[in-house]
Structure formats: structure tokens, C-alpha cells
């Protein structure tokens, strides 16, 4: 091992470096603890996010580390935001550019296809995940590819790509460290940017000891990273094909752009003779003037780093090489027609909404049991399967923080509320919620009953024993203390303090 | 599959978003650009984990020689410096794997992010940018632009098939947020400002 072991890397002036996904302050897990696993998937039955979240919260070391790390990323993001005077203008532009492109998506897709084809890229179209997988397999088979190296792509997670290729005897090697950890542990990524963020270093040490032969007692992050580099490099050098995703697709130049911190997309794309890129049709933007808006926002929003270490632009195959782009729909064109939910297509997969979400930080991404976790998952997952993911829109405090940090200004929390309405309208609502909503509905429907209920609820909250508020039915009480209840309702206070003063001027206006 | 192409485009046209969504004009946001971009570039590069080599006027390549401290093949893609491994038209991408140091010239730099732009023209073989263990990069200070908006006005984007912004060395923090340089690409990146 030639690892250059340092605990914290510093710049030439002795300041701790915190670029990329690095924490701005040392956060080290103190104890080893068995890793809580994600949601239990039972066919098409609705995923029980809160059940999996409970198990994650019970693993206190995992929960504390996860919460601290993601909150640190959120704080790094804020610091970056304050350093850019035009930040809000960039968000407005990003939102406007995405809306414009989505409104003319057919035009921009054809424009990209024309320009990319002229540069020597072979463009394919896939309606869904199955067709995507079949297209890629056909390309690989016809060229005798047995080993494919790959950089991280959420789209291929959507398509179940790795499982499909394993079934068809093509070896797929993930080259992003976090994604490789997850692949070796046979687990899905838990976060769109930091796929193994739910794992402690000891979890990684145990996965690597079992799979790539590292020392099970050495959980040093530098050592583990170095072991992975040494183990993966021969596979990279011997692969016959490489695969990447695409963060942005520039229609006017026929370029696609991939952002990584490790340089693994460049390795995957440039080392073997064949490069295949799988790209969702919503990734289009018009031209090069628009691209910097997104490059400036992406890594700052995701990790609080000014840019990813590598921002790679592919416009055509290299000499003697071959390049394919598979444009994948997989439900996106249908989503365009959903009046309330199409703005979810603006998403650039930065994960800022996850980092800021109190539910996500405490329950871990695998608790959602879906490709997309966190706030963006709550509004995207039901478009794939409304029944299976019907509980997810309730995994939110509705604090609106996700909307506030979104670099493309998706109204995430409003869409969560809209999904709750839509699900209730479709009869996709769990029995417990049905009973509670019916009772709440009756109370809220009548101002008289509502007012009468308030002082009761207030005094009940003050006097009820702890076990009654923090029980299994009340998922809200978990990991959360209810704020101290006020001594009187606003209406009582108003009647006492103001109503007497106003009485002479506006009789009865406050009823 | 042309059937799917038509089906996808047809569905997009059918599900057209309502309302006007004009293409916004994007400003360059460069009013506050300092006259000398070197200081900002250095600060940004160091933040991303890169190093600036101190220039030597009488012997411009001395800092490059001094930066080469580990044994192993050195490949040079610049005429100013001679390496001990040559890139020829027959060089394959994987041939770069044993290289310890690569000496390259960047097409240009970006002060906002400390980024260096390389295209196939500077790299000769694309893998020269990330298969070596370490990179030493020459950058003409006159080729530093202020921000990313300025950067995307450059001609390289319409000339190259492959172009990369490299901002510091390869990095990961996928294990407990601990920063490690050299995840898959280069372990270190040093820049000499040299016309």
C-alpha cells in the first residue's frame, strides 16, 4: 500500500481543505455498530418508510453521523451561496432555462441528435428501462464486451441496469468509490451524490475485507480508499467498454457534460475504446451560454464546493474510438403532461433537498425503498408507481426548506402537499391515515368545533403523560419534542387584548 | 429504434407544457472582475487542493524538475520540458497507466474555480489527464478568464471532442466525509504560471 496517510488535508497556508464532499470539521464515528438496512421491499406493496426509519434511528451512531455530515454539507452550501452575489439570479435563470427547454423539449432533443450525429456520436432512443438495457446489451454483445466500467448514474439505477447485466453475464464495475462500496455490499445508493453516506467507516472496512481483501481491522478512510484504487485500476485497464451518465446535454453543440470529483467518468469514458452514455431526456439545455449557470450551481448546492474536481465535456468520439448516447424517457414524457408535477423534471440531482431535510437526515436514504430518496423522491417516486410509493409524500415535515435550497426552484413542498391531495383523491391512502384524517376533517370543517377543540388540545398537550404523545400511532413524536404549548390560544389572547379596544370601531369583525 | 424515437417525441408534443416560457438571456456576471486574475486563480486552485509552483526566472523549468520527487516514468506533452516517455500516434490510452508524472499545458484557466481546461489537443492521449499519479501543469497567465461564463465563451468548446475542467486533484470523501486525494485520477496537481 502506498497510501499517503494524512488525517486532515490542508492547503499551503495550513487551512483544512473541505472541497468536494469533505466535511468542514472532523466528524469521526466513535463506535462500530451494525449497519441498519433499508426498507423492506415486498413486491408492489406500499413501502413502509417509517418502519425502516425507526431502525435507522435506533442505530444511534449511524443516525448521529448521517445527520451531522449532511447538515455540514448544507452549511457548506450556505457559505458558498453567500460568496456569490448573483446567487438568486442564477437560481431564477436556472429555473427559467429548464422551463424553457422542457417547453420545447422535442425541438431541443432533435437539435441535439442532429449535432451529436454530425460529430460522430450514435444516438439511440429508449422508451423505458427495459429498452435502455436491451440497447446497451446489444451494443456490448456485438463487440464482445465482457467487462464494463461505469461511473455513477441515477438513471441506470432507475433501469435496474446492474442486475440486468449480471443476469446477462456482463461484469459491471462501478468506479465511483461510494457507488463501488454500495455495489460490493449489494445495496442501492442511499443519496444521489454521496451514495454510501449512511455507512460508517467500520461498515466500509467490513465490506472491503469481505470483497477486496482489505484488513478488517483497519477502518482508516485513506487506507480504505487506497485499497479500492489499487483493486479497481486493473479492472479499469482491462475493460472493453465504459459507461457514464450525463448531467447536462447541450443541444446547440451536441455536447454532454459529466461532473465527478474522482475523475472516474473520464477514466470510464477514455480508457476503453467504446463509450456509452445513458441520459434522461430532461437533461437538455439549449446552448453554451446556459451551461455555466448550472455548473456554478450544481456542486455548490450539492456539497458546498465551488465546482466538481472534474467537469468533463464529450462532443464526439476520440480518434479510433466509438461513442453512443442512449436518450431515455422512462416516464418523463408522461410527467410533462402532469399539470402539478412536471416542474420535478427541472431537477439536476444535486441532493441539496436531501441534505437539508430533517426527515432524510434522521432516517437515511434507504428507508425510502425507492431510487430517489428525500424530498425530491417524495414527488418523483409516485410518478413511477403510485401505489408502491403512496406513503412517501407523508415523510415530510412540510418545513419548505427543500424548496428554499433547490437550485432550480422546484416547489418541492407544494408538490408534496399536492401529492397528498392526489393520493387521497385516488384512494391511495393508508387505513390509519384515513381514520385520523376523517376526525381531523370533521373538526376542521366547523369553525365552532375547531375553536372548542383548541383549548382542550392545549391543556391535553400540557398534561398528557409522555407515553401518550410519543406512541406508535403518532409518528410525529419520534425523535421530536413537541414545542411548549402556549397558555392561551391566539383567539383568546386577541379577544382579551384587542377586541375591547376595537369594539367601538368594528363590531363583530373578529368572529 | 426509430419506433421509440417517434413515440417519445410524440408523447412530448402531446404533453406540451402550457404557457409561455421564453429563453432567458444569461449575463456574464463579470463586472467585478479584478484586473489581475492570478491572485484569485491561485486562491481558488489552492481551495480545490491544487498547488502553485514558485516561478524561477533564469531557469523557468527548474520548478517542474524540483516538483518531480518520486521515481517513475515522466511523460511530457510540452516542448519546454523533456520527459522520459514519448507519446506517439501508436500510444494506446492504457499505455499511460505506469506514468508517475505528466507535464501538460492547460488551454486556459478559470479564476473563479481554479479550473484548468484540457482538450485532446493538450493531452495528446486523453488518459494523460488522469491515469498518471501526478500532474504538473503549465498555464499562461494571459489565458486565465474570470469566471465560468467567460470560460464558456472560449473557442475550445466548438473545436474539441473531449474537453475537461480539472480543478485540483482527484478527490473523494465518500467514507465519513474524510477528504482523500487520488480516488481514481491524479493524486496531486501542481501549476506553474508560465507564458
Tell me about this structure.
The complex is a heterodimer of chains A (511) and B (195). Chain A is 47% helix and 9% strand. Chain A is of the alpha/beta class and 511 residues long. Chain A has a domain at 432-502. In chain A, helix 3 (87-103) packs across helix 12 (291-303) and helix 16 (374-384) runs parallel beside helix 18. Mean pLDDT of chain A is 91; it is low at 1-5 and 507-511. The model of chain B has no long low-confidence stretch (mean pLDDT 96). In chain B, 50% of the residues are buried. Chain B is α/β, with parallel strands linked by helices and 195 residues long.
Element layout with pairings:
The complex is a heterodimer of chains A (511) and B (195).
Chain A: H1 49-58, H2 60-82, H3 87-103, H4 105-118, E1 122-126, H5 129-142, E2 147-150, H6 154-158, H7 161-167, E3 171-174, H8 177-184, H9 201-211, H10 221-238, E4 241-244, E5 248-250, E6 255-260, H11 264-270, E7 274-280, E8 284-285, H12 291-303, E9 310-314, E10 322-328, H13 332-336, H14 352-356, H15 358-363, H16 374-384, H17 401-405, H18 412-425, H19 431-445, H20 447-463, H21 466-469, H22 490-502
Parallel strand pairs in A: 1-10, 2-3, 2-4, 4-7, 5-8, 7-10
Antiparallel strand pairs in A: 5-6, 6-9
Helix pairs in contact in A: 2-12, 3-12, 9-10, 16-18, 19-20
Chain B: H1 2-14, H2 38-47, E1 51-52, H3 62-67, E2 74-76, E3 101-105, E4 108-110, E5 115-119, H4 120-123, E6 134-139, E7 144-145, H5 148-151, H6 156-159, E8 162-166, E9 171-172, E10 180-181, E11 188-193
Parallel strand pairs in B: 1-11, 2-3, 3-6, 4-7, 6-11
Antiparallel strand pairs in B: 4-5, 5-8, 9-10
Amino acid at each position: 500500500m502506498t497510501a499517503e496517510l494524512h488525517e486532515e488535508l490542508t492547503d499551503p497556508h495550513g487551512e483544512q481543505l473541505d472541497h468536494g464532499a469533505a466535511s468542514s470539521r472532523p466528524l469521526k464515528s466513535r463506535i462500530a455498530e451494525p449497519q441498519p438496512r433499508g426498507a423492506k421491499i415486498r413486491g408492489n406493496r406500499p413501502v413502509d418508510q417509517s418502519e425502516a426509519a425507526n431502525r435507522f434511528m435506533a442505530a444511534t451512531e449511524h443516525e448521529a453521523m448521517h445527520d451531522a455530515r449532511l447538515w455540514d454539507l448544507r452549511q457548506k452550501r450556505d457559505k458558498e451561496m453567500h460568496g456569490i452575489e448573483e446567487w438568486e439570479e442564477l437560481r431564477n435563470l436556472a429555473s427559467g432555462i429548464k422551463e424553457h427547454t422542457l417547453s420545447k423539449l422535442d425541438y431541443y432533443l432533435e437539435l441535439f441528435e442532429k449535432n451529436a450525429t454530425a460529430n460522430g456520436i450514435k444516438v439511440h432512443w429508449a422508451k423505458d428501462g427495459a429498452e435502455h438495457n436491451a440497447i446497451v446489451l446489444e451494443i456490448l454483445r456485438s463487440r464482445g464486451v465482457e467487462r464494463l466500467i461505469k461511473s455513477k448514474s441515477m438513471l441506470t439505477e432507475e433501469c435496474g441496469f446492474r442486475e440486468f447485466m449480471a443476469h446477462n453475464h456482463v461484469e459491471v464495475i462501478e468506479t465511483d468509490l461510494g457507488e463501488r462500496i454500495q455495489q460490493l455490499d449489494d445495496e442501492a445508493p442511499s443519496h444521489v451524490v454521496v451514495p454510501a453516506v449512511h455507512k460508517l467507516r467500520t461498515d466500509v472496512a467490513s465490506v472491503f475485507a469481505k470483497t477486496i481483501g482489505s484488513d478488517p481491522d483497519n477502518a482508516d478512510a485513506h487506507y480504505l480508499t487506497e485499497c479500492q484504487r489499487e483493486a479497481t485500476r486493473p479492472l479499469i485497464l482491462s475493460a472493453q467498454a465504459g459507461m457514464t451518465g450525463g448531467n447536462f446535454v447541450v443541444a446547440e453543440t451536441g455536447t454532454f457534460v459529466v461532473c465527478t470529483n474522482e475523475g472516474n467518468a473520464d477514466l470510464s469514458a477514455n480508457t476503453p475504446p467504446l463509450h456509452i452514455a445513458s441520459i434522461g431526456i430532461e437533461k437538455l439545455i439549449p446552448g453554451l451560454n446556459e451551461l455555466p449557470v448550472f455548473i456554478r450551481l450544481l456542486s455548490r448546492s450539492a456539497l458546498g464546493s465551488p465546482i466538481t474536481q472534474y467537469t468533463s465535456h464529450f462532443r464526439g468520439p476520440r480518434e479510433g474510438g466509438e461513442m453512443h448516447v442512449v436518450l431515455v424517457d422512462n416516464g418523463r414524457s408522461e410527467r410533462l403532461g402532469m399539470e402539478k408535477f412536471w416542474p420535478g423534471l427541472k431537477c439536476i440531482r444535486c441532493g441539496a433537498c436531501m441534505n437539508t431535510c430533517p426527515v432524510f437526515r434522521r432516517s437515511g436514504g434507504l428507508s425510502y425503498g425507492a431510487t430517489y430518496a428525500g424530498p425530491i423522491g417524495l414527488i418523483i417516486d409516485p410518478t413511477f408507481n403510485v401505489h408502491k410509493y403512496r406513503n412517501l409524500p407523508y415523510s415530510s415535515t412540510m418545513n419548505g426548506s427543500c424548496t428554499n435550497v433547490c437550485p432550480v426552484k422546484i416547489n418541492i413542498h407544494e408538490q408534496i402537499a399536492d401529492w397528498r391531495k392526489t393520493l387521497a383523491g385516488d384512494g391511495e391512502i393508508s387505513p390509519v391515515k384515513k381514520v385520523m384524517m376523517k376526525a381531523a376533517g370533521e373538526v376542521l370543517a366547523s369553525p365552532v368545533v375547531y375553536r372548542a377543540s383548541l383549548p382542550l388540545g392545549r391543556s391535553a398537550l400540557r398534561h398528557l403523560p409522555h407515553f401518550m404523545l410519543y406512541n406508535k400511532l403518532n409518528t410525529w413524536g419520534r425523535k421530536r419534542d413537541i414545542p411548549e404549548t402556549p397558555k392561551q390560544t391566539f383567539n383568546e389572547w386577541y379577544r382579551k387584548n384587542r377586541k375591547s379596544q376595537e369594539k367601538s370601531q368594528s363590531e363583530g369583525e373578529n368572529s | 429504434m426509430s419506433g421509440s424515437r417517434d413515440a417519445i417525441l410524440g408523447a412530448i408534443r402531446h404533453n406540451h407544457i402550457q404557457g409561455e416560457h421564453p429563453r432567458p438571456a444569461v449575463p456574464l456576471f463579470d463586472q467585478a472582475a479584478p484586473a489581475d486574475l492570478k491572485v484569485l486563480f491561485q486562491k481558488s486552485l489552492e481551495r480545490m487542493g491544487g498547488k502553485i509552483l514558485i516561478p524561477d526566472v533564469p531557469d523557468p523549468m527548474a520548478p517542474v524538475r524540483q516538483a518531480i520527487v518520486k521515481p517513475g516514468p515522466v511523460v511530457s506533452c510540452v516542448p519546454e520540458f523533456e520527459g522520459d516517455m514519448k507519446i506517439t500516434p501508436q500510444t494506446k490510452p492504457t499505455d499511460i497507466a505506469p506514468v508517475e508524472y505528466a507535464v501538460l499545458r492547460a488551454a486556459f484557466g478559470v479564476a473563479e474555480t481554479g479550473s484548468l481546461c484540457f482538450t485532446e489537443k493538450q493531452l495528446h492521449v486523453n488518459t494523460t489527464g488522469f491515469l498518471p499519479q501526478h500532474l504538473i501543469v503549465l498555464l499562461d497567465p494571459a489565458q486565465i478568464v474570470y469566471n465560468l461564463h467567460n470560460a464558456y465563451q472560449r473557442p475550445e468548446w466548438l473545436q474539441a471532442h473531449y474537453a475537461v475542467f480539472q480543478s485540483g486533484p482527484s478527490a473523494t470523501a465518500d467514507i465519513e466525509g474524510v477528504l482523500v486525494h487520488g480516488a481514481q485520477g491524479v493524486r496531486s496537481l501542481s501549476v506553474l504560471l508560465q507564458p
